[in-house]
Design goal:
Blueprint: H1 3-20, H2 29-42, H3 46-64
Length: about 70
């Protein structure tokens, strides 16, 4: 992935947000662009992404549970 592609997409995303009047997002334009291009480059399937998400949520849930005493 070229830096030029990343910059072009990030700029386009920022412009679109200005047009829509949505200035705040959890990800800024640059990070969203990186996420999109990485997804396209790696060709991750929806199923694989869902498994990654599910695994991450399971780990977070396990971390949130209080440790049981023996």
């Amino acid at each position: 992935m070229s830096n030029r592609s990343l910059i072009m997409l990030a700029d386009a995303l920022r412009q679109r947000r200005r047009e829509l009047g949505t200035t705040w997002r959890r990800l800024d334009g640059g990070r969203q662009a990186l996420l999109v291009l990485a997804r396209l480059r790696n060709g991750e399937t929806s199923d694989r992404l869902h498994r990654y998400l599910r695994e991450g949520l399971d780990v977070l849930a396990a971390m949130a549970r209080p440790a049981t005493r023996r």
